[in-house]
Amino acid sequence: MSSLWGARFAGGPADAMALLSASTHFDWRLAPYDIAGSRAHARVLHRADLLTTDELDRMLAALDTLAADVASGAFTPTLADEDVHTALERGLIERAGPELGGKLRAGRSRNDQIATLFRMWLRDAARRVTSGVLDVVDALVAQAEAHPTAAMPGRTHLQAAQPVLLAHHLLAHGQALLRDVDRLRDWDKRAAVSPYGSGALAGSSLGLDPAAVAADLGFDAPVENSIDGTASRDFAAEIAFVLAMIGVNLSRVSEEVIIWTTAEFRFAVLDDAWATGSSIMPQKKNPDAAELARGKSGRLIGNLTGLLATLKAQPLAYNRDLQEDKEPLFDSVEQLELLLPALAGMIATITFDTERMAKAAPAGFSLATDVAEWLVRQGVPFRLAHEAAGGCVRVAEGRGVDLVDLTDEEFAAVSPALTPEVRSVLTVEGSIASRDAYGGTAPDRVAEQLKRLRDKVSVA
Ligand code: ARG
């Protein structure tokens, strides 16, 4: 038994205890970070005269060998190793000998180690997720660029609302995802503090400099408070939220892709590479990537809420409950690393039936607001204008025609202010072009938005 704590015990743990306690099956992915932490820790021990220069050199050489053996798979954890830290101390002692290998643990605890390594792993993961999200935004922007003037039905309550540009709609998803990228970057500022040197909870008595270790490991600063450093996991909950939010945003795009590719809508067709078939129904082309995004977003939300529940009643400082913080985060990152490239590919290769979308754009009397706003421009108060436009919808609906098909007499009967000129706004192009305030759906405004978004994606 290579336990780090066996001396005060007469016997080893029961088998079921060891099984319950073990975490190497998931925390082994932290091994390279653990070794980086050990290198930094060896250097502060040397600076504090707790290792001679020769010992430091031999320690670093042994850690290099260990790192290579971990990378090649020559060194792996055994069942008896409780966690990644224990396994790697065993590996170090096997390489450096018990005398030198046994010196490294001075002034550190697995509590400050794990809090530091988890931050390091998450900071790297956040960079990978950021680049995956940017690829999805890039695909949305490219589709918007390819369809600068295509119209579609804009919806609220999933009912026809007002015509909008397809590019405008796609960029709305892009904006949401870019905010997630901002969130990841903002999170990193708070995650970039190092708990190393906090010890078990109270700090170190050996004259070790936490700032030096922090700098060595790429952190901006050491934690201000060693109790907080070892006990807090809000950095994990915060990024779990951002990852869940990314999942939710991907799910919303996906839901639309699922609707658009139905036989009833036929607004879009998926490329064969991003669809799947049915084992029984030969005609099927299923949007499984989009459905998996929708499904996995539930899982990412679960990872966030599970972690919050784990944290909520824990007294300070470290409790073993905190070992439960890692799997939800590893899972959320892994799921997004599967999902993001697939969604980028799916979106980049969708073919839109822009003719069909444009034809559907005025359906459901989606130009009624344009009638009301035309009347307002003629000096009619909006309350009356809204009533008159509603009257036009009632007449057109009763006759089974579009607003533009009403006769001059029918318009005049609804309101004398409704002269035949009202037809000038009863086209999809006219309606879209008229919404030309900043952020609106007019082609020039969307082109400007596209350019700003494109610039953000390229500098990112
Ligand atoms: N494996 C633990 C975790 O993930 C770290 C070890 C701390 N163990 C302890 N008995 N203090 O949180």
From TrEMBL:
It is an enzyme of class 4 (lyase). It comes from the Bacteria. Keywords: Amino-acid biosynthesis, Arginine biosynthesis, Cytoplasm, Lyase. The keyword Lipid biosynthesis does not apply. InterPro entries: Arg_succ_lyase_C (IPR029419), Argininosuccinate_lyase (IPR009049), Fumarase/histidase_N (IPR024083), Fumarate_lyase_CS (IPR020557), Fumarate_lyase_fam (IPR000362), Fumarate_lyase_N (IPR022761), L-Aspartase-like (IPR008948). Its EC number is 4.3.2.1. Residues 15-302 form the Fumarate lyase N-terminal domain. It catalyses: 2-(N(omega)-L-arginino)succinate = fumarate + L-arginine. The keyword Hydrolase does not apply. Residues 365-433 form the Argininosuccinate lyase C-terminal domain. PROSITE patterns: FUMARATE_LYASES. SUPFAM superfamilies: L-aspartase-like (SSF48557). GO terms for molecular function: argininosuccinate lyase activity. It is found in: Cytoplasm. Pathway: Amino-acid biosynthesis; L-arginine biosynthesis; L-arginine from L-ornithine and carbamoyl phosphate: step 3/3. One of its GO terms (cellular component) is cytosol. Its main location: cytoplasm. GO terms for biological process: L-arginine biosynthetic process via ornithine. Belongs to the lyase 1 family. Argininosuccinate lyase subfamily. This is Argininosuccinate lyase. It comes from Saccharothrix violaceirubra.
